[in-house]
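Let's do one together. I've listed all components of the complex below, 1061 residues spread over two lines.
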Amino acid sequence: MKTALPAACIAFASSAPMRGTAALAAASISFTVVGMVGSSLGVAAIWHRAGRAWQAPAAIRAGLPRTCAVPAPIYPAMEPLALYIHWPFCQAKCPYCDFNSHVRERIEQPRFRAALRRELAFEAERAGRRPLASIFFGGGTPSLMEPETAAALIEDARALFEAPADLEVTLEANPTSVEAGKLAAFRDAGVNRVSLGVQSLEEEALRFLGRRHSAAQAVAALEMARGLFPRISFDLIYARPGQAEAAWRAELRQALALVADHLSLYQLTIEPGTRFATEHARGAFALPEPEEAARLYAATAEEAARFGLAPYEVSNYARPGAESRHNLVYWRYGDYLGIGPGAHQRVMRDGALLAIRRHRAPEEWLARVEREGHAITAEESLAPADRAREALLMGLRLAEGVDPARIEARSGVALAEALEPAMLAACLEEGYLEWTAAGWLRATGEGRLRLDAMLPVLLR
Amino acid sequence: MTDTPLSQIRNFSIIAHIDHGKSTLADRLIQATGAVAAREMKEQLLDNMELERERGITIKAQTVRLAYPAKDGKTYVLNLMDTPGHVDFAYEVSRSLAACEGSLLVVDASQGVEAQTLANVYQAIDAGHEIVPVLNKIDLPAAEPDRVKQQIEDVIGLDASDAVEISAKTGLNIEGVLDALVARLPPPKGNPDAPLKALLVDSWYDQYLGVVILVRVKDGHLRKGQRIRMMAKGQVHTVEQCGVFTPKMVAMDSLGPGEMGYITAAIKTVADTNVGDTLTDDRHPATEALPGFKPSIPVVWCGLYPVDADDFEKLRESLAKLRLNDASFHYEAETSAALGFGFRCGFLGLLHLEIVQERLSREFDLDLIATAPSVVYKIRKTNGELTELHNPADMPDGSLIDSIEEPWIKATIMVPDEYLGAVLTLCNDRRGQQVELTYVGNRAMAVYRLPLNEVVFDFYDRLKSISRGYASFDYAMDGYEEGDLVKISLLVNAEPVDALSFMAHRSAAEKRGRQICEKLKELIPRQLFKIPIQAAIGGRVIARETISALSKDVTAKCYGGDISRKRKLLEKQKEGKKRMRQFGKVEIPQSAFIAALKMDA
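Okay, and this is what the predicted structure of the assembly comes out as:
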């Protein structure tokens, strides 16, 4: 574990025994922190203009050794947190998916519900009562969750954090009839945005992708969702084997006409360890060549634009204002909590940016949470250079680009130091990168198309 | 033992084309004379090195002393000298031959005379040998002893009527070979009372004994404890051990005239023992050395680089170890922008190059890249200075050059009729000049003068492929001649790639330049930026290709859970870039250069 902070504080954060909230409250002592590293102050100044008084999290208050010389007041206000909740179960594993998902015959919903709530409480204790930006139920297939689980977690989150009235609460859902039938209950639970895994509007493609719903069911689910939720997004997978540009344009137009304010349009990617990886290696099917993939990508942006959807990230298209606030936190490299099996977390604590991971296997995760209150398997304080790389590899996916001041505030590394100067110049000259009028650095459309090739040479 | 009368000694070598049965015959002779117990018998007894066994070639000379009780009731000492059989080691061969009075010419009775056989048999004739033709594989249904005898007479001009017909494989008529050796080969000449004169035939490094020297005593005696002097090198050593090979090393008190054997003298490296040197007694030296000494000079050079830059020191150590046992190859450190740190190495020829490369990878477990082999050019500068060029990268500016000379060879190619046309076309394409074209039955023998430069560039592979492996090829160096030669530089993203520059005749420059540009275009993966590839002579571009920028490379999905993974992947990619070479804003994987160089070889 690497850290720039007093060792005692971090040692506590990573390894102290985690106790119940009651015990923590009883043991609490009062203190506040100053002398944060410059980067956190920078965050406060630049990112979060609306400052807010803050108290050290109870966990730290409780366990901080008295010898740790961190004196007096005023911890700067924190930017809002995003909250990710992972539901690790699916009815079947899709052949392209490498997410942490598992198929189980029976799921003890109440136990998982209790465990998720417990992890949420645990993290909220450590994070303190920060403003909340969003909640996102991902998976797996979170629409297989009992709506009561979502309801309880949303209610907890609203109680534990400062939640605005229009808090974005997204649920990923599959458009099978069973799940569509539960959408109203999820709405009642507090979900106000759904992201439907439509994937395709062609039957043959749905079969190829191993989906358990028909195109008609997808359309029906979308129509039902439109009556229930103010904001709707859905996913499509394109650049499928043998997919012609004209056919994709037609399919996309049909999808766009279904009126969503947001679309995630992913080119089919062969992920290692998936069934598709095996079949692809065997030569069972071939993906389009990069030239063809680039043409399909351009066609996608063109069609989306005709319906008023702009690409604000590599694969995400939205009407202005309808961008996923939750996902923007990731791409802008903000703080997010992740609970549930295998969930990842990035959170600034005492000036250290912590990367936290949780146990991936659902049963083991459950056992650990029930035993210890959390299932954290790794907690690492990211070095400034690592933070800069992460901030840039995410931020350059966005059409808006990155704000140099924010990169520096978040990572402690000046943007100029984080980039290879010769490559920056070459990418600017080639038109892959540009400076915006506001002084942000952004990848152009051409640049974003080649981001994976650009990053390893551009980033230091 | 040392007092074997000269009249009862026969020293001989065996001349044969690869696969015509030299090693098998040697094994049979050893068996027949009982030099090795049956249980110790293994195939190719004399070829110690793994590489020698595998490729059926002999790299180091060896001797074995056989005791043969002949029909006249006397027991003869038959010293078999196993010589390297390749032109790369022509000088070593000539010294081995100088140590013998006769040769067995082994010819496959079904295949007939091959090019390599020819060159070696002529060398043996030049050395004054009595030649005993031996027809091997006589038991094969395809054997045509009469045709092959006729061929030996026609092509070589030897009387083959008394050729010994044998099958080394079955052991048929091995006795006949032994009798012919005794009856037809002259005994060695020598004066036991004259000051010591012994020919240094070969030497090798043994990790327990130090350098072992193979000698043929001409005059006088070589004794244990004797102070001996190397006449060319001037160094003095004390003989620690002397003896003979049976083929096991057997120590003796002394070696007399006509004998072959070994000595050890606490010598640390074979670089201190020059093949062809004369050993004499330090206190009673001979006045004149044996004729024919010449130091070995590399004719082919190439760069050797470790694929993994971390292996540089290991390569340096391995080269030093190898040189302990092979003084004929040379090396010096050099650096290349494309390949990093490595060595410029000089070899006696292409086979020698291949052998050293293979031994480095096999015995020292090194993964190596070799640049295209280059011959040694002689450059006359406008200021009158004459320099030798081993590396095209060192070529002086064109304005400073008055003329360039390149080495030529005389090549002998034997090939079945039906492939002759293709072979002649190949030779003509490579600036060959026909010297002679003769037929023996349905086989043609073409003698060509060729620039060595054209031969090091994939000539051998082409020859094999156009003749379906039936052509045999041999060559001898044939002097230097002025040529219209140019250096072709390869530029990637406008920067020269030193490792890929090469010399070519002006008439072939454009074609070769275009070929290598096309090749690189295939080998270099598309990148973020387009990459121009050019071949140029001086400042003039003669060929050009462009690798267009890659069209799409971006992860479709990237959310909160992917950040660590993406960063780690990024770090791995950055680490991988250390193995790439920077050419302005593009990085070329070293593997692309390696592949380009491999295609050249």
